[in-house]
Predict the 3D structure of the following.
Amino acid sequence: MGRTQQLYELQMADLEIDEKTEELARVEERLQEPEWLIEARERLGAQREKDQALRKRQRELEYTSEDLREKIAELDDKLYSGRVRNPKELSGFQQEADALKKQRSKVEDGLLELMLELEEVERECGTELAELDQLEQRWRGEHEQLEAERQRLKQDLARSEARRATLMERIPQSDYRLYTTLRKERAGKAVAKVERSMCAGCRISMSTVEIHRARTSPEPIRCGSCGRILYVT
Ligand SMILES: [Zn+2]
């Protein structure tokens, strides 16, 4: 393999490495959990929090209601047991019992309302959970595909790196220095093939003499127009 061919092959390997590295970065970025999944999980979390808060309120109201029930029962006992005879005292108990009953009825109304709300929230929870399940399943499928792509790209990269290393063993340092400088200046392409008597890098026509020189010179010959190293096949 001639020196320019080696550089051309090196460029192929480097371009491949650049391309696969970019692709790999894109795939790895897409492997992060997507926004739509995070949002669905947050929606379910919010519904569950609402559910918890309502249940807590339910327990509090139930406790209050039970407490009132007991107090009312005590008063009823005093009222109807016959132990208390004083009419003034009895009327006081009666008033107290009435007030507590009214209070308890309000608490019970609140409980009923709350249970309806809870039912609604539980329905929402069910919907969100089903949706999340579906999205998670979709993500598992996508993730599996992306992971396979990632593996494939890593293998491709390893192959290109190995090829590059082999080529590097035989490339003279001065050639490599010129190559890296030109690659930086010429958007990754330091070597240009000569095709149909033209430099493939800048499309400038070349004379037969120039082509002959590029083919036979032991040193790399550069295009007079774009400066790239010319590779004549
Ligand atoms: Zn050129």
In short: The radius of gyration is 42 Å. The helical segments are 3-30, 35-80, 87-168, 173-185, 208-216.
